[in-house]
Amino acid sequence: MSSEGDLDQPSARFLARLKRREEKAFNELVLAHEQKVYRLVWRMLGNREEAEDMTQEVFVQVFKSIDSFRGDSKLSTWVYRIAINLTRNRTKYLARRKQHSHSDLFADEHSAQHHEAQGVTAGETSRPDLDAMGNEAAQIVVRCLAELDSEFREILVLRDVECLSYEEVGAITGLAAGTVKSRLHRARSLLKTQVELHLGGPIA
Amino acid sequence: MTDEQLPESERGDEPSVSNPVAALLQKALASPPEPKIHFLPGVQERIRIRTRGRYFAARRARYRDPIILLLVAATLILLIGALVFLVLEPLVGPTQPPQVNHELNPRPQ
Q1: pTM of the predicted model as reported, rounded to 2 decimal places
Q2: Which pLDDT belongs to residue B58?
Q3: What is the ipTM of this complex?
Q4: Which of A78, A102, A89, A70 is nearest to A6 (CA)?
């Protein structure tokens, strides 16, 4: 029986090394999770430089507060929770600083990315006019996502983009699975309404 | 709102792609830009500064770019090879060209 919650032996040993502040163990942790954390943070903030900075901050926070991790959830879930909390704070900070409004950040960062999203509403096509429509739709989706309250944005990103289970989303956000489901439903509905308003038609 | 009140696509752990909004989001946020930095050295540096050198102060503990390590290893191997050659080369002495017996192997006319 492990002393750290429900962790198996290798995980408990690894956690013990982390709690002893073994630098090698911490390096392993960073290398194992950095890309996932970066992706999540970028999806929440919509800006590469902010996401790079925030990703590093997440691991600094993990290093600082590893003693408070009891092993009740997966270590990755706990790291994600720290990422979400820090991102939430950063979003509030950025919202206060008007010169870097969220939607502007998203718009800048996505101009190159949206080629991936071509055909979202127009379907796969090589017609430039329809490609432009798909690209525009993706930009609208991202802009509308940025305008949502962070509690809705978090749920949408974790569930619909990161494809985590309701239980994992609940563990990260601190919500019950039922609340996650109802909030997800509300978030999708809000986003759909906003996107359709901007597109001037239904998205499905 | 309870689970029973939710539409079918919201219940259980079915794939989110069945929902049009989820599909839109996945497409729009599919591929983040490649980060332009290595995270580990930055994290180590921040921890080193904030712990006033208590952690990640030793050079051996810090992250090094694997390409630099590879280049250093390759250079070292080359240097060792050159050194071994320089040491062993005088011991072997000048190599004699093989003697060819023309009587046994007459040249074709």
Answers
A1: 0.70
A2: 75
A3: 0.75
A4: A70
